[in-house]
Design goal:
Low-confidence stretches: none
Mean pLDDT: 86
Helix content: over 70%
Radius of gyration: 26 Å
Number of helices: 6
Number of strands: 0
Distance between the termini: 83 Å
């Protein structure tokens, strides 16, 4: 056999090897994507569970319950604690919302969950009044402020 006779066979073997390599890369990419989705889902569950566990502290739970009625029901120190709690709820909801924009499975569901979670805590008079007072200069990212406004059905900043 001459070299010119072997060349087509070598080309065929090369093409098959490239095709097999591409298939293996595709399989690895799918596996990696599935692992990433699972890891993100577990992280979101951990974040939400951590937030919910905060109110296992009965003193904080009492502050939260009184703060829902209005900041005037709290001492200055309790107001600071409650405001930090409200910001943590907002940041958690915003994290869920932002992660859902990264094309993770359940995108729409995560967006709904983020809004529900925020509304569940912020729908009360205390958080609503507090947000109205600070929203023009809120210590949060623009995406978090937009989410808070959406949760409270407030138009964008004046």
């Amino acid at each position: 056999m001459t070299l010119s006779q072997i060349a087509p066979v070598a080309d065929l073997v090369t093409a098959i090897a490239v095709l097999v390599s591409l298939i293996l890369v595709l399989i690895e990419l799918r596996r990696s994507t599935a692992e990433t989705k699972l890891a993100n889902s577990l992280k979101l569950t951990e974040i939400v569970s951590s937030l919910r566990a905060i109110t296992d502290d009965l003193d904080l739970a009492d502050i939260v319950l009184r703060g829902r009625g209005g900041m005037e029901h709290l001492t200055p120190v309790e107001q600071m604690v409650y405001q930090k709690f409200l910001l943590r709820v907002l940041h958690t909801a915003n994290t869920i919302r932002r992660v859902s924009t990264l094309s993770i499975e359940g995108d729409r569901e995560n967006k709904v969950i983020a809004l529900r979670q925020l509304r569940a805590e912020w729908v009360h008079p205390g958080p609503r009044d507090w947000w109205q007072k600070i929203r023009a200069n809120a210590p949060v990212a623009a995406s978090a402020a937009a989410l808070a406004n959406e949760a409270l059905d407030i138009e964008a900043k004046p």
